[in-house]
Design brief:
The protein has 13 helices and 2 strands; from the N terminus they run ααααβααααααααβα. By secondary structure, it is mostly helical.
Length: 293
């Protein structure tokens, strides 16, 4: 069942048989809370379009809306499905983290003048977010896991990109703390999303591919450093800006291009909303999840 069929089932469930399209649209407009649905209903009433036109509009809305169920997401192009997002994030994270790790010791010694004492402080601060990763539970009360994963990637990318801009103990410790928060929170929610989005029958295979994508991205970053550092006369600042900037840009693009994939739509209220919840259970075969915004 695709999204358009679901909307039609809902419209026909809440309206008597043989109800004119204008009445169906009015009913949907009165009971549904989705602002996009209201605007589409108004346009259909104004132009007295037929049910076929409503099908097309609802399908377009499903293609570009910010949230949809996992079952609905299967109607999207393959690259816009949840698996595509997991692959993209798996490739984006090592671009910043692997580059940052590979250059860190050389950078802090050659540029910042660190000794063993400062390096010890650096690695101690870097592990603090790992101990406090349980705090992600509180953050998830406010935002969804997919949003948090992308925001964490952006934080990791931006902090890595700015590393060479502050070659002092305080600056490096602060940016290391930010990048570590991004890394640990990303890894926490990324593993959760993998287990939620992947079917059990395909999970081992897809998880293997995701690990391979991440390893491939790290290998590309290392080879680029070896091949280009001397030939192009690269500096720490340039490499950190490029690698961290790429990770942040990929995360921003993913936020704009990928809808939020839900286990099932969470709509409150009665009337059409109740019918939609029942339809959602049948359509997706999973329990409704009431999460954050």
């Amino acid at each position: 069942m695709n999204s358009a069929e679901g909307w039609l089932l809902l419209g026909r469930a809440v309206c008597p048989p043989q109800t004119p399209p204008e009445s169906i649209f009015a009913k949907m407009k009165g009971e549904m809370q989705d602002a996009m649905c209201v605007r589409l209903a108004q346009a259909c009433i104004r132009h007295k379009c037929a049910l076929a036109r409503w099908d097309g509009l609802m399908y377009s809305h499903a293609m570009f809306r910010r949230r949809m169920t996992l079952a609905e997401a299967q109607s999207l192009p393959r690259w816009r499905r949840p698996e595509g997002l997991l692959v993209l994030m798996a490739a984006a994270m090592p671009l910043a983290f692997s580059t940052w790790s590979a250059l860190l010791n050389n950078f802090v010694i050659e540029v910042a003048g660190f000794t063993g004492v400062e390096i010890g402080w650096l690695h101690s601060v870097r592990e603090i977010p790992g101990f406090l990763a349980i705090g992600v539970i509180l953050v998830l009360l406010l935002v969804r896991e997919q949003v948090l994963a992308l925001v964490s990637l952006i934080l990791l990318g931006v902090a890595s990109a700015l590393t060479a801009q502050f070659p002092s103990l305080g600056g490096i410790l602060f940016l290391t703390l930010l990048s570590s928060i991004g890394f640990h929170y990303y890894e926490t929610v990324n593993q959760s999303l993998q287990l939620q989005w992947l079917e059990k029958s395909r999970a081992p295979e897809v998880l293997g591919w995701l690990v391979a994508v991440g390893s491939g991205a790290s290998l590309v970053a290392y080879l680029a450093l070896v091949a280009l550092w001397d030939n192009l006369g690269l500096s720490y600042n340039t490499v950190y800006l490029v690698s961290g900037g790429l990770t942040a840009l990929i995360a921003v693009a993913a936020f704009l291009l990928y809808p939020q994939a839900l286990l099932c739509a969470a709509i409150h209220g009665g009337g059409a909303a109740a019918d939609f919840r029942r339809l959602c259970r049948l359509h997706d075969g999973r329990e409704i999840r009431h999460g954050g915004a």
